[in-house]
Amino acid sequence: MFVTITFIRWLHLVGAAALVGGMVLQLFVVSPLLSGIDPALRGKLAKKASDYYLPVFWVSLALLIITGAFVIFDRLVSLENMVFPYKNSYETFWLLKLSFVGAIGLLGILIARLSNEIRGASKEQMAVTEDVTKISLLENRKHRLRHVVSLLRNLNVVLGIFVLLWAAVLQNIFGLLILR
Ligand code: HEM
Hints:
It is a single chain. By secondary structure, this protein is mainly alpha-helical. The chain has four helices and no strands. The protein has helices at residues 2-35, 39-79, 85-127, 132-179. Protoporphyrin IX containing FE binds at residues 9, 12-13, 16, 19-20, 64-65, 68-69, 71-72, 75, 94, 98, 101, 104, 160, 163-164, 167, 170-171, 174.
């Protein structure tokens, strides 16, 4: 059991590093790099970057959920039959952590949808090469969408960092419960 749970916690840490690290890299390295590039190339490169990045995001989130379920099971079994004041706060913090993880997943879906809309608008622009008004309307729409995507990415990184904080709090509360 000791070896299994250590292995699962290791996988959980690998998932956390890949998810939060990937989001930080996307926000602070890939996005600024793309924004300084010729707009004609930007769309294609952004698509390639998200083709590589999205599997990392979803696979690490799935890994975190699966391994997290094992870890919480192990923790709750250890805390069974204990009636300490901290026990409630352990469960509350765990639920808070879970809601942050849910929010990260939902924002991930929203970001992917908005990025698709930006790509759709670029394709539409290429199809209506003659209509200058439509092209500029689409350009404004893309600009607004990019702004929203960038805000949501910021929010997701902040949530990811909060989840790490919650993990640290959970670990301390668990330590207090076990050592009592
Ligand atoms: C964004 C997603 C997540 C991140 C970044 C994250 C990160 C972490 C980290 C860094 C730890 C400390 C690992 C250790 O010391 O072994 C941890 C522990 C833990 N995680 Fe997660 N996690 C995430 C999602 C989840 C999910 C979805 C669950 C539950 C289904 C979960 C349940 C747990 C539990 C129960 C612990 C042990 C806390 C304790 O020490 O008592 N995590 N998490």
